[in-house]
Write a structure and sequence with these properties.
Blueprint: H1 2-12, E1 25-28, E2 34-41, E3 44-49, E4 52-56, E5 61-62, E6 65-66, E7 77-79, H2 90-96, E8 102-105, H3 107-113, E9 117-118, E10 124-126, E11 131-138, E12 154-161, E13 164-168, E14 186-190, H4 199-209, E15 213-217, H5 227-230, E16 237-238
Parallel strand pairs: 4-7, 7-8, 8-9, 13-14, 14-15, 15-16
Antiparallel strand pairs: 1-2, 2-3, 3-4, 5-6, 10-11, 11-12, 12-13
Length: 244
């Protein structure tokens, strides 16, 4: 674990004193395989599963935080939810891509990138290696916000890694379709008004989805420190990491 944290610090260009708690999280699949998750920045997540590298919404820079992807092995799979600059970075994808890398995204990002496996809301893919993925809706519903993420354009993803179910919500509010998202082990829910959810919306969403572990992410300057206590009685393990 110490080695993992040191690597994370190198990737972020930070000293270990910048972090007050362990950032790397490990989970076990049904057959005992390890899934390791590294928070990089905002909505960028690095996942290692069965010696495979999975990158979610990789971006090289957000504000004063820079991700050095040269310190990370090139990816087996890259997932991008939508084309906004804090989720889609063409050069980061290029840097992470090698022969055999699979890029999974929505239609808009595939058009911008010039290639990719396009998934629409409701699509399901078996990517082999014990990896299943479902593309689920991600959109705004509040009046005055719907232009940020219109319905039907962007994706959230449910990844199943050897049966371990991970919900990566993308940029969304607490939409009705969340009632169909079940048996989630780990959820990443955004909390960054006015673009995604307010803390109150996130709590409602968490109570609908009922993940075992919840990572608030994409939260910028939104205060998410109250969420662990608010959801404690619901039996949800809320873990605050550096997903500003």
């Amino acid at each position: 674990m110490k080695k993992s944290i040191a690597l994370l610090m190198a990737v972020l260009g930070l000293s270990t004193s910048a972090y007050s708690q362990p950032e790397v999280n490990e989970f076990q699949t049904k057959s005992g395989k390890t899934v390791t998750m590294y928070p990089l920045v905002h909505s960028s997540i690095r996942i290692i599963y069965d010696n495979m590298e999975i990158e979610i919404d990789p971006v090289r820079q957000l504000g004063n935080r820079t991700i050095d992807y040269s310190q990370i092995p090139q990816a087996d799979f890259i997932f991008v939810t939508h084309e906004h600059g804090d989720h889609y970075d063409k050069e980061a994808i290029k840097q992470l891509t090698r022969v055999g890398t699979r890029f999974i995204t929505n239609q808009r990002c595939a058009t911008l990138q010039g290639y990719g496996l396009v998934m629409k809301n409701g699509d399901h893919e078996d990517l082999n290696h014990g990896i299943l993925v479902d593309a689920v809706p991600a959109y705004n519903t509040t009046e005055g916000r719907t232009q940020f993420h219109p319905q039907g354009r962007d994706n959230g993803y449910i990844l199943s890694l050897d049966g371990l179910r991970i919900y990566i919500a993308g940029d969304t509010e607490d939409i009705p379709e969340m009632a169909n998202i079940k048996d989630i082990d780990i959820a990443f829910l955004p909390c960054n008004q006015p673009y995604t959810m307010t803390p109150e919306q996130l709590v409602r969403a968490a109570r609908i989805i009922k993940p075992k572990v919840l990572f608030p992410y994409h939260y910028g300057q939104t205060d998410v420190t109250t969420l662990p206590e608010e959801l404690k009685a619901d039996g949800i393990d809320v873990r605050i990491r550096h997903y500003e």
